[in-house]
Amino acid sequence: MLLPAAHSYARHGIPVLPVHTPAAGGGCSCRDSGCDRPGKHPRLRHGLTEASTDPRRIERWWTRWPDANIGLRTGVVMDVADVDSDEGRHGLRHLLGGATPGGPQVRTGGGGWHFWFRPTGYGNRVRLLPGLDWRGAGGYVVAPPSRHARGADYTWVHRPGIRPPDAPAVLLDLIAGPPLPRSGGVIAHPDRYAEVALETQRDRVARAPVGTRNDTLNRAAFALGRLVGAGLLDATGTAQELEAAARHAGLGRAETRRTIRSGMTAGRRHPVATGTRVA
To answer: At which of 145, 174, 203 does a domain end?
Structure first.
């Protein structure tokens, strides 16, 4: 079932990648006893960057790993609203005026939902609302009929049609988030802004593809350094969060610390402005 499904996604233009498989007892086929994402991370050395629609390559992958879960690169054919709780689903419905998105919908093996939309051009976003993440450019999702660590399969509730629907404007506004102000600009809600900025930058660093990891870390350190300089984030805690994300991405400790120190120092020289904007 997995190989034919992988071929089917690829025929529709969605880059596919083999993902590790949950093991008995809640473990993972990666054999890392400390794995915190069993059945959800790529088997490939270069991860997401190797995702492909080439049927021969897909055949080789699933011949080697016949039970591999299926990962789909987002931001190409679709973006995905990744809902992992009832709270997240209710929050999304409330945002959309009580409606459930009408496009393709997956029930995840962990009890959540994936709602497909046309690509927005935005990258990944974490915790848009409690229990709601966004998978866009540079991201991926696990797809049916993959198996979740809890033992259930990912299944289709509504299969894809001709194309996913456009994301509603209110959802796009949430994904775009507050723009980082230019010189003279003011952040209207600084505490919430800083919290979202830290989560977003941490997620970008953790998921950065090989070849972009150090640059992504440097940009994140600079952006968050601006918030540290404004007194919105704690320097030590922010550096620790970035270092943990960089380790997850595979960067070495010495390189990581140099990049964080350099980026945050530069950012602190250009702190963002804070205050109250009158509507």
So the answer is: 174
Q: How far is CA 131 from CA 66, 92, 128, 157, in A?
A: 32, 9, 8, 19
For the whole model, what pTM was predicted? 0.66
Q: How many domains does the chain have?
A: 2
Statement to judge: residues 112 and 208 lie in one domain: no
| Cβ-contact 275, 187 below 8 angstroms | yes
Phi-psi region of 233 (alpha: psi -120 to 50; beta: other; left: phi over 0): beta
Residue pLDDT, tens place only, 98-111? 888 989 999 999 99
205 contacts: CB under 8 Å, gap ≥ 6: 213, 216, 217, 220, 242, 245, 246, 248, 249
| pLDDT 10s digits, 38-54 | 999 999 988 888 999 99
Q: Which run of H or of E encompasses 113? A: strand 113-117
State residue 1's pLDDT score.
87
Instruction: Quote helix, strand, coil % in the chain, to nearest 5.
Output: 40, 20, 45
Number of neighbouring beta carbons within 10 Å of residue 38: 20
C-beta separation of 171 from 95 below 8 A:
yes
Give CA–CA dist 154/174, Å, rounded: 27
pLDDT per position as a tens digit, 7-38: 999 999 999 999 999 987 778 999 888 888 89
Based on the domain organization, do 110 and 209 belong to the same domain?
A: no
